[in-house]
Design brief:
By secondary structure, the chain is of the alpha/beta class. The protein has helices spanning 3-9, 29-37, 41-45, 48-61, 75-79, 99-103, 107-113, 115-125, 142-151, 167-190, 208-227, 243-250, 263-269, 287-300, 320-331; strands at residues 66-68, 84-87, 91-94, 134-140, 195-199, 233-236, 254-256, 273-275, 306-307. The strands form two sheets. It has a seven-stranded parallel sheet with strand order 1-4-5-6-7-8-9, sandwiched between helices. A two-stranded antiparallel ribbon has the order 2-3. The chain binds coproporphyrinogen I.
């Protein structure tokens, strides 16, 4: 069994497995080199040779316990026929959501559009570099995808609250997402993903009165679907106000905490396996500060099954040597 599966299935404590959100990305010069020659981000995700190569880049450098497939949560709206472009210094930009068009998309058409993602998963799963390691597939949570699809750009730029009023648009989009996220998850598992992570990056934006309908109900459907394949599911409801309640209702196999969540409080309230937490900004400081902060997490989770990771993705300004230092420190701690 892989170190991560031991931690999740056997609730193993002791040495902590480790991987990083955004471990393949802009902080790596070898990624930037490929990115420079491939200006179209979606096209890059759909290039089987390049996306599998990028997925494996961090595993060539570091002693990590998992690979995460190089793709994006916005590949699902793309697969549904909503145009997505990634603009430099702006982020993603989507065109208007046309319910009629996306309701007509057929399962086979969607799977065909995203076929290179599945081929890339298959290719990576056969690589020696992931022998005895996990290969993480992922999806955006329905709520977070709805935000991008209706808002058409990152809500950190501006969130058009007007759309909360269109209940029909919201309900129908959720129904379509439920169907196609399940297809996307199934295709990833069938091609070699051994764990699925659900990213709910904008969980913290939602008003309490909508949480039940837009986060709990919708996410639970996906979590139960993933569990039916006997594949572990990690949930990351970033900045959600009540992590304990989320765990109680959703019951993911693993809960990823953000850096604002108090790690001590979380283990008092739940026996679910925990992942992450460390503020990625510590990787921009110095080794001594980074070590103290990493040690804090390792000590808190000494007797609790814990997968070492961050409280959000690796930042583009991170020096890869700091990541190397952190991995060696975590691996050598117990
Ligand atoms: O070179 C570049 O400009 C690309 C930067 C980049 C990368 C490396 C984007 C654009 N996406 C990715 C890959 C990616 N995205 C992965 C790959 C695997 C890995 O982790 O190494 C994953 C898991 C994601 C998931 C993702 N995409 C999320 C959820 C996690 C999070 O960061 O909160 C979100 C919100 C996105 C949307 C997205 N993709 C990229 C951008 C700039 C954004 C928008 C972020 C925002 O709204 O602020």
């Amino acid at each position: 069994m892989t170190p991560i599966q031991e931690c999740i299935r056997n609730k193993k404590v002791g040495s902590k497995p480790i991987w990083f959100m955004r471990q393949a990305g802009r902080y790596l010069p070898e990624f930037r080199k490929i990115r420079k020659l491939n200006k179209n981000f979606i096209k890059l995700c759909l290039d089987v040779n390049l996306s599998s190569k990028i997925t494996l880049q961090p595993l060539k450098r570091f002693d990590l316990d998992a690979a995460i497939i190089f793709s994006d949560i916005l590949m699902v709206p793309y697969g549904l026929g909503q145009e997505v472009i990634f603009k430099k210094n702006f982020g993603p930009e989507l065109n208007s959501l046309n319910l009629e068009t996306i309701s007509e998309i057929k399962d086979s058409e969607f799977s065909k559009k995203l076929l290179p993602v599945y081929k890339s998963i298959k290719k990576v799963s056969k690589s020696k570099l992931v022998n005895d390691k996990d290969l993480i597939g992922f999806v955006g949570a329905p709520w977070t995808l709805l935000v991008y699809m209706i808002n058409k750009c990152s809500p950190k730029r501006n969130l058009n609250k007007k759309f909360f009023k269109d209940k029909i648009l919201i309900k129908e989009t959720f129904e379509i997402l439920d169907k196609f996220l399940k297809i996307h998850i199934k295709n990833q598992i069938k091609n070699g993903a051994t764990i699925i992570q659900i990213f709910d990056s904008w969980a913290g934006l939602l008003e309490n009165k909508y949480i039940e309908d837009y986060i709990y109900d919708r996410t639970l459907k996906l979590v139960n679907f993933i569990k039916s394949y006997k594949v572990p599911v990690i949930c990351f409801p970033r900045e959600i106000k009540n992590y304990e309640k989320y765990c109680k209702i959703i019951k993911p196999d693993v809960i990823n905490i953000d850096y604002k969540t108090n790690p001590e409080k979380i283990i008092k309230k739940t026996d679910i396996v925990v992942q992450g937490g460390l503020d990625p900004k510590f990787l921009l400081t110095d080794k001594e500060k980074l070590k103290i902060e990493a040690k804090r997490y390792l000590d808190i989770f000494k007797d609790h099954p814990y997968i070492f990771n961050l409280g959000h993705g690796v930042l583009p300004k991170t020096n890869p040597q700091m990541l190397d230092y952190l991995i060696k420190f975590v691996k050598g701690y117990y």
